[in-house]
UniProtKB/TrEMBL annotation:
Signal sequence bounds: none
Taxonomy, superkingdom: Eukaryota
Pfam families attached to this UniProt entry: F-box
Stated name of the protein: F-box domain-containing protein
Organism annotation: Folsomia candida
Length: 433
């Protein structure tokens, strides 16, 4: 079964398996048209259209095929369908076509012949998924990963249960830059220790880490966090965050360029949340270029939380989901002094601002209250001149009429506040009724 990376991204939001951007091999035809124009055009097409392009002629076949390979993930069940042996030639044919990106699906039947994968040593992207609570191929998928240690760039464990994190002791993955760990390990000390050793010893070139927050305290207790590789500059945390252990995030030794809190929620000590966030953001504010906050609490009065943010001198992309949580927000205008946002001080180079309200509040969809913390004072000379793109999404079930009037009014307000984002403020928000 062939599956495109576009299909994969639709399931996981902005997740895209690692793509070999350096692949410029297009077959025996070396004309400029094939090498430059055809692959470039195909990058903007869907897989179905690319398949049609391959039928035009030999030149289009070679030019389009290279792009199609890069957009394709081969799904390989590591167990026989309906307990039948999978044709090894079929699997080899799949791997021959798209030999760099695979999704290994682990099931509860007897595994297929592992010899099929003996010669597969050049994978660049591997996704591991489990479809059963009692997997029988737990020894096979680590071997497939280890066989491509020298070429692997992206490794994702994409969900499942009852798996042990494999040991990579004594092996180095020199090109692995992206590691995506969902919560499906047993969370025993051995699993956390293996994760720690993998990040600190086996993945010296790691740049982006997506991980469930529940692993962080254990990695802290075992002294792994301070040893994370210097190349790591992008961190994404998800699931429930325990505020009692949030200080462990301060142990990250190296500056971050990208920081995301996605689908995260807090329960205890919610009143301490703004200060803990400020300390963590303050540490990385000099280098942060992209920040995404999608957080929530179990408190109904979360609007009463008083947030304080540092200034972000190099921030270019800011996304705030559940924006009503940040209705009371002040920025550090000068050392120790907080006030209304001044873009020239707080976000001097910000280019993209995305704000999303994810729940309905009666009678507030008609104004910009959901992004009040990010609006400069009227007459303030701190106009957001650098902002070129503004996206405002309002998911509101209370507004049942006058949608177009409300939309036009909000667009006018945004244009007055962000004049240089005129090209993007057209149809950038939605009212979902």
């Amino acid at each position: 079964m062939e599956r495109t990376k576009r299909d994969e991204s639709q399931e996981r939001g902005d997740f895209l398996p690692c793509r070999d951007e350096d692949d410029t091999e297009h077959g025996p035809f070396s004309s400029g048209l094939v090498e430059d124009v055809i692959p470039h055009v195909c990058k903007f097409l869907g897989p179905k259209d690319i398949r049609h392009c391959r039928l035009v002629c030999k030149s289009w076949n070679y030019g389009a095929t290279s792009v199609l390979k890069n957009k394709t993930i081969i799904i390989i069940p590591l167990y026989p369908k309906k307990c039948r042996l999978i044709d090894s030639d079929e699997t080899k044919d799949k791997l021959t076509f798209a030999h760099t990106s695979v999704c290994l699906v682990i099931g509860g039947h007897q595994p297929i012949d592992p010899k099929i994968f003996d010669e597969i040593t050049n994978l660049k992207s591997i996704v591991v998924r489990s479809s059963t609570k009692k997997p029988l191929e737990k020894d096979l998928f680590p071997k497939i990963i280890l066989n491509s240690a020298s070429t692997l760039k992206h490794l994702k464990f994409g969900g499942g249960e009852s798996l042990e994190f494999p040991s990579f002791r004594g092996v180095v993955f020199p090109k692995l830059a992206n590691l995506d760990l969902h919560h499906f390990w047993d969370e025993g000390s051995q699993d956390i220790e293996r994760i720690g050793h993998a990040i600190t010893e086996a993945f010296p070139a790691l740049q982006h880490l997506r991980i469930a927050y529940r692993y962080m305290p254990g990695l802290s207790w075992m002294k792994f966090l301070p040893k994370f590789p210097t190349s790591l500059n992008s961190l994404e945390l998800h699931e429930l965050l325990n505020i009692n252990y949030m200080n462990c995030l301060l142990e990250f030794p190296h500056p971050l360029k990208t920081l995301k809190f996605t689908s995260t929620s807090f329960q205890d000590r919610v009143d301490d949340l703004p200060w803990l966030f400020y300390k963590f953001l303050k540490k990385h504010s000099p280098t942060l270029e992209k920040l995404c906050l999608q957080i929530s609490t179990n408190r109904m009065d979360n609007l009463k939380l008083n947030w304080i943010f540092p200034a972000f001198p190099v921030m270019q992309n800011l996304t705030i989901c559940n924006s009503d949580m940040f209705a009371s927000l002040k920025f550090e205008i000068s050392l120790g002094n907080f006030g209304q946002i001044n873009y020239k001080i707080c976000f001097p180079v910000l280019r993209v601002l995305r704000i999303c309200r994810t729940h309905s509040i009666p009678n507030v969809a008609h104004d910009l209250s959901c992004m009040a913390g990010f609006l400069p004072l009227q007459g303030d000379n701190g106009c957001p001149e650098s902002v070129k793109e503004v996206d405002l999404y309002i998911l509101d079930e209370t507004l049942t009429s006058d949608r177009n009037l409300v939309k036009a009014d909000l667009n006018d307000q945004l244009l007055k506040i962000f004049p240089n984002a005129k090209g993007s403020i057209k149809d950038v928000w939605e009212l979902v009724v």
